[in-house]
Structure formats: structure tokens, C-alpha cells
Amino acid sequence: MLSKKFSLLIMTFFLLTGCVQKSTASPSNQAKAEEEESKPIETEIAVAGNESRSSTFQLQGDIKIVALGDSLTKGVGDRTKEGYVGLVSNELEKKEDISSISTVNFAAMGHSTENLLKKLDEDQVKKELKDADLIFMTIGANDLMKVVRENIFELTVELFQEERLLYEQRLRDIMNKIRSTNEQAVIAFIGLYNPFAWKLAEFPEIDMIISEWNERTKQILLEDGRAVFVSIQDIFQEGEDNNLLYADEFHPNENGYVLIAARVMETLENGTKKD
Per its UniProt record, what InterPro entries does this chain match (predicted)? Predict the structure, then answer.
């Protein structure tokens, strides 16, 4: 059983997603970088269980983005109201082979996998998803926090594992619902992060639990063949002075969303799935 101190502390922490450091091109590589920026986005994704197979997708022409999930995809904490969805949309629009970007955002604060399953049954959501070329999604943080709320003084690692199994089944149901409406859209799923890793370093169970949930999510997405997992757990492990959190100390601020967007772009452009 986890300590009572941990139980009280974890009640204050909200799991969303994290970010990574931006890479900076050297002057000698500037010309190459500018040339690459205008190329169509092309990504290879290994299919789970058969690393020799891959799916290749391109994003070009008129691109429609549909965003799904919780407060991170909603952009809570960003005073500019852009969030990572807006920032990535702006970057994609700069690509020479992309003519235009349109975005519809159905994300809502507090949504869990159960909420998203219901959302996917709405006629308007199905209508927009049908024409989507790119789907952004964050989900799972509130499923994990449900364990905390219901077991505040009796938290165990096993309780999180039990909930994770239920989460995995609901995530598969979510993927099936999306694919029953749209088989071809690229899905970019942004993983969980722990914004308080530096405050709760004495409780390694938190990072272990998040890593397990992220790993299982990644495996489910790999089964799809046209989905990428954007791993961003590492960013808040850099230290207290990163200035990546909003005033509520839970959600990312503008700086945090910039780094999330950078990782999403990196994943879409290079097919790099970071651990």
C-alpha cells in the first residue's frame, strides 16, 4: 500500500501530457532544414508484432484536423488559446504541399475514455470525423485520477493496474469507433506526463504507473498501422525551473504547449516514436 502522505499528495496532481526540448539546427545545416520544411510530411509506422512491415502516409493538399479528448487537447492553461492543436496547425500550414488547414476541436476538460466513447456516438462528431485527414487525441489522465478519487487512503499499484486494463479495452473501443467512421485518417495520440515529477521524486510509483499506461497505449496504437504515439513524459523531469506550467501548476502554459507541438511535429515528420 502506498503511504498516506503519497495518497494526500497525489490528490493534488493532475496527469496530462508533457513535452520535450526543441532541437536547434546548426548554421551549416540551415539550408538543408529549409529545404526539408517544404517537403510533404511522410512517416513510416511499424506495425505491432511485425517490425518489418510499415505503413507510409502523407499529409498534403487541403487538410482537415479533428481533435478529441481532454483538457490538454482543449488547450487549458494557454492564455493565447492556441494549445498544441493550434500551434501544430499553424506549422503544418507553412508546408508547401499543404494548401489549407481546417480544425474542429471536440475536446473537453475532465473527459475520460468513457466520456470520449459517448462523444464518438454524437452525429456531429461522426460527421466531422468522416472527413478528417488528421486526428489529434489525448485521453486517459482522468481515468487514472479516478483511481485516486475512489481510493484516496488505500492506494496501491495494483489498483492502477486494474484500471489500466479497463482503460485499454475502452481505448480499443475508441479506436474501433473512429475507424468505423474513418479508416484512412492519421491519428496522433499524445501520451501522459507527470508535471510533478520533480516535487514527488521520492514516490517513484507515479512515474512507473504513467510509463506502464503509456507503453500499453503505444502498443494499441501500433496495431492500427496509421496511428502514432507522441511520447512527452520526459519534459517535466528536467527540474523545477522549466517554467512550463500554468498558474494552476497542473496544465502546461504557453511554453509547455510550444514544446508539445514541437514533439508532435517531430513525430509526424520523422516517424520517430520516443520512449
Answer: Ester_Hydrolysis_Enzymes (IPR051532), SGNH_hydro (IPR013830), SGNH_hydro_sf (IPR036514)
In a domain, 85, yes or no: yes
Cα distance between residue 213 and residue 203, in whole Å: 17
Tell whether 26 is covered by a domain: no
How close are the terminal C-alpha atoms of the chain, in Å?
A: 28
The structural domain count of the chain equals 1
pLDDT in tens, 194-232: 865 555 555 578 789 999 999 999 999 999 989 999 998
Look up the domain containing 149 and give its range.
4-20+43-268
The residues, ordered by sequence, that sit 6+ positions from 131 with a Cβ below 8 Å of its Cβ are: 64, 182
What predicted TM-score, i.e. pTM, was given to this entire model? 0.79
Kindly report, residue by residue over 43-86, the tens digit of the pLDDT: 343 333 333 334 456 788 999 999 999 999 999 988 888 999 99
Residue 31 maps to a domain: no
Cell for 183? 479508416
